[in-house]
Amino acid sequence: MTTSKRSERYLNKKAHPLQIGARMCFENPYDKETNPNGYINLGTAENHIVFDLMEKKLKNREKLPKYSLKYGQAFGHPDLLKATAQLYHDHLFIKDVKPEQLVFAAGCGGGALDILFNAVCDEGDSVLIPVPYYGGFTFDLFRSKVKIHPCPNFLQIVKGEVEFDPIKEGIKAVLITTPDNPQGNALTEETLTEYINWSQKYNLHIIFDEIYACSVYKPTSKFTSGMSIKCEKPELVHQAYGMSKDFAMSGWRIGVIFTRNKNVLKISKELSFYSSVSGDTQWILTDFLSDIEWRDNFIKTNKERLYHNYQLLTKIFDDHKIKHLPCDGAFFLMVDLREFLKDQSKQAELDLYNHILKETNVQILPAMQGFEHVVPGFYRICFAVDEEVLTLAGNRIAKAVESFQNLTEKKD
Ligand SMILES: Cc1ncc(COP(=O)(O)O)c(C=O)c1O
After folding, report:
1. How many structural domains is the chain composed of?
2. Do 300 and 155 touch, CB atoms closer than 8 A?
3. Is the minimum distance from the CB of 250 to ligand 1 under 6 angstroms?
4. Residue 411: predicted pLDDT
5. 223 to 101, 112, 211, 212, 219: CA distances (angstroms)
6. Which of UniProt's keywords are assigned here (predicted)?
7. Which of 329, 402, 334 is closest to 370 using CA atoms?
């Protein structure tokens, strides 16, 4: 049976390591009582630590109004846009945001980012992304047919220490994640300003993925949005956000676009028709966000629990002398296992990953495979899971790393 020419790309598309690992865990998930030998998934960036708060809040679903059953504004009900603008004002610290500058779509990646790249880039244009970056961008940007230009030294380029002409390279836009995935670093106002000024010098669009904005949990760190930076050409600055992470709602598929560019706004509204958020989901989210006391307590508790889990996991690794990188927010700890590799190659990184998986049944992600890291030996571990599971998995990983070292030492 023939299919369209344009769909051939999908038939030939290879699964990404993020998807392969996640599938394996979905098919055989760990459960203390019913499946103790199943896989513990510390590879998927999902937030499980506030499900109890969500469950309680979901009890008033029976109040769903009739309007949620009807056709409505595909890009977001006015009440939802208003409540979201309030969230941006109070927790993303963007003081001038207006409800009419927001557009809802199904998810941050396949929804908001897909729409934004369709709006600002043509097929074949390149998008500069500093590495390491969230591997899922490979599929989020796939439909818009842009090319990803991985950039290992963006900060040096911006500071003028390395020569790079984005126009010659066919770059049309820059994609920046803050706090980032996989390292969990929140960019400072100074760095954001440098990134924006550099992009504007070449008239490039800059898109901020701020899906972890409300998950900056370290008391000494703070979130600053790229949208709050004053600049000469605000029409070239856009943001993608969503409820998958900060609100632990990855299954509900809620993404948001924020732009001050009138044309990008209009195109986004048109395109959101193809991936809109359902009426019941919109209403429930409006209900959550408009209950300011609940909303604020939820965000505060989420941050406290993230910090607690961060401390728990780093204590296990510190006790075992396993190095890890500093971070500010999101759900990840990047461990530095370079000293345990038999050589500094992608294969050696994979060998240690396979050893950990085999010994522990815990799925984590090697950063070269998953995040285009240029140096082998870093692994991302998601810690927004139940405390008991995290303790078990953290100890298993630490022991597996030690046993790998013994194994390689014996071979030598
Ligand atoms: C930086 C980043 N952007 C986008 C996404 C995808 O979000 P969604 O599930 O809402 O499409 C993720 C998910 O891991 C992410 O880490």
Report:
1. 2
2. no
3. yes
4. 62
5. 21, 21, 12, 9, 11
6. Aminotransferase, Pyridoxal phosphate, Transferase
7. 334
- Asked if 79 contacts 282 with a C-beta cutoff of 8 angstroms, the reply is no
| Residue of 245, 272, 331 to test ligand 1 pocket, by largest number of atoms within 8 Å of CB | 245
- CATH number, domain with residue 131: 3.40.640.10
Residue with tokens 């809620």: 254
Average pLDDT across the chain, whole number = 95
* Same domain, residue pair 241 and 299: no
Q: Cα–Cα distance between 139 and 111 in angstroms, integer?
A: 11
Whole-model pTM over 0.90: yes
Q: What is the pLDDT of residue 308?
A: 98
Asked if the structure places residue 170 within a domain, the reply is yes
Q: Which of 239, 260, 293 is the last residue of a domain?
A: 293
Instruction: Say how many Å lie between the CA of residue 109 and the centre of ligand 1.
Output: 5
Tokens of 143: 């439909």
Tell how far the Cα of 138 is from the centroid of ligand 1, in angstroms.
11
> What is the C-alpha separation between 43 and 381, in angstroms, rounded?
6
Among 134, 239, 380, which is best to mutate for testing ligand 1, by the most ligand atoms less than 8 A from CB? 134
Give the range of the structural domain holding residue 358, as residue numbers without chain letter.
5-52+295-411
Q: Note the pLDDT of residue 410.
A: 62
In this structure, is residue 58 part of a structural domain? no
The CATH number covering residue 33 comes to 3.90.1150.10
Distance from the CA of 116 to the center of ligand 1, in angstroms? Answer: 14
Verify that 83 and 215 share a domain, yes or no: yes
